């Protein structure tokens, strides 16, 4: 009996830990996505000025290029990492 109780307690703890891990992974998905966007932005920003022109976006971030006009709300001819992250956050909010 004692072993059965210990086994149930251990399995219950494992289930709770598994749920906690699943929840943590779900919550960290946006953080992982942001890190990936940052890396892709840095690679696409060929001149390193912190801005992506439409040409840079087309070459390195095709989804950004496809939505360039929506992200570049001020029609400056470039988008920043913060603008891309804001667009991504707005998209997450719609889902």
What does this entry look like structurally?
With 95 residues, the chain is mainly α. It has a domain at 29-94: EF-hand (Recoverin, domain 1, Orthogonal Bundle), CATH 1.10.238.10. It is 77% helix and 6% strand. It contains 5 helices and 2 strands. The chain has a two-stranded antiparallel ribbon. α1 crosses α2. The relative contact order is 0.10.
Supply the CATH architecture of the domain at 29-94.
Orthogonal Bundle
Distance between the termini: 49 Å
The secondary-structure element order is: HEHHHEH
Please outline the major beta sheet: 2 strands, antiparallel
The CATH H-level homologous superfamily of the domain at 29-94: EF-hand
Strand content: 5-15%
Q: Portion of residues in helices?
A: over 70%
Broad CATH class of the domain at 29-94? Mainly Alpha
Question: What Rg is obtained from the alpha carbons, in whole angstroms?
Answer: 21 Å
Shape: globular
Strand order in the largest sheet = 1-2
CATH topology of the domain at 29-94: Recoverin, domain 1
The tally of strands reads: 2
Mean pLDDT over the residues:
81
Oligomer: single chain
Number of helices: 5
Q: Which consecutive residue ranges, at least 5 long each, have pLDDT under 50?
A: 9-24
How would you classify the helix and strand content by structural class? mainly alpha
């Amino acid at each position: 009996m004692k072993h059965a109780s210990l086994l149930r307690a251990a399995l219950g703890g494992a289930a709770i830990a598994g749920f906690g891990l699943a929840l943590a992974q779900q919550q960290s998905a946006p953080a992982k996505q942001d890190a990936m966007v940052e890396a892709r932005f840095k690679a696409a920003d060929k001149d390193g000025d912190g801005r992506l022109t439409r040409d840079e976006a087309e070459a390195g971030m095709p989804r950004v290029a496809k939505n360039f006009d929506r992200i570049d709300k001020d029609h400056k001819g470039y988008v920043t990492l913060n603008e891309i992250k804001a667009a991504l956050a707005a998209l997450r909010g719609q889902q």
